[in-house]
């Protein structure tokens, strides 16, 4: 007896009453579902799918709207931040201007009262000599005249620590010193600290006496012009240079054009003539104290000790030693006109920016300046 027959007997069924074909269709057994009911179920299912799709589309639209609103709000916040930043900057500038004005009107000290007793007057010539630098002719000449007109001043000291600079500014200071020196009222002494070269030595040579430390750098009696030639560079880059002038030599120093021999010869004559002016003024200031060494005017820089042997300086000493020799103590009064605090800050910022960018701020193409 087979296993199926035994199961049928246990359940009280006759073995022959079971349809053998039904053994594999147990999941299809049951009452038949009407066709209309099937179609209704399918319709309900499709409607559910459509509703789900619409819901998903609605949620996607809401999400897109949220993103758009978030972007708009972010842009508005960023715009408000920039507006606030620029307003604060404007407010800061207004406050700085107001503070500077109030300082000048109420807090700035007047010209320092000079002592009645005899004293040494100090004029500082520090840094590059240029019209837009602290060591400019107008400021130094103003200090010189103030010191010269004070009856209590025993001697005027030009305290020099400068590599030189503008020929015009140097010549202006030189001419004024020579004018005062010819009056013979009081001595003018140039004291060179670390460096007194080129235009700075031009100024010093007008003094009655030049004093320097043994390790100071002195001299550099020469003229320099420096430029670049970019004509091959722009040719490699495929750049076309367009320059229009009225006058055939107006752009003769254009760095993007080759330097013509006639132009170079002409420009060298300008430098040579300026150098001769420099030499003539140094000779007029120093007189017979200069040695006959031809290298003096070659542009070389000497130490203070070497300069003494060449007649470029008269004595090796410090500012304190000069003060003790003149007034008996190492003290002096500074007659250099003060720089405006706001102007000083602006100058320092401009100089720092120029150094970072590698740009020279001097407007003079020709310089009495040590390199």
UniProtKB/TrEMBL annotation:
Indicate the segments forming the Peptidase S49 domain, all copies.
183-324
Q: Which Pfam families match?
A: Peptidase_S49
- Asked if the keyword Acetylation belongs to this entry, the reply reads no
Region (Disordered), start-end ranges: 1-52
Report keywords, A-Z: Hydrolase, Membrane, Protease, Serine protease, Transmembrane, Transmembrane helix
| Residue ranges of the TM segments | 84-106
Task: Indicate yes or no for the key word Manganese.
Answer: no
Renumbered to this chain, the Basic and acidic residues biased-composition regions fall at 1-13, 41-52
Source domain of life is: Bacteria
InterPro entries per record: ClpP/crotonase-like_dom_sf (IPR029045), Pept_S49_SppA (IPR004635), Peptidase_S49 (IPR002142), S49_SppA_C (IPR047272)
Q: What does the sequence similarity comment in the record state about its family? A: Belongs to the peptidase S49 family.
Q: Kindly provide the name given to this protein in its UniProt entry.
A: Signal peptide peptidase SppA
The organism that produces this protein has a lineage beginning with: Bacteria, Pseudomonadati, Pseudomonadota, Gammaproteobacteria, Oceanospirillales
Gene that encodes it: sppA
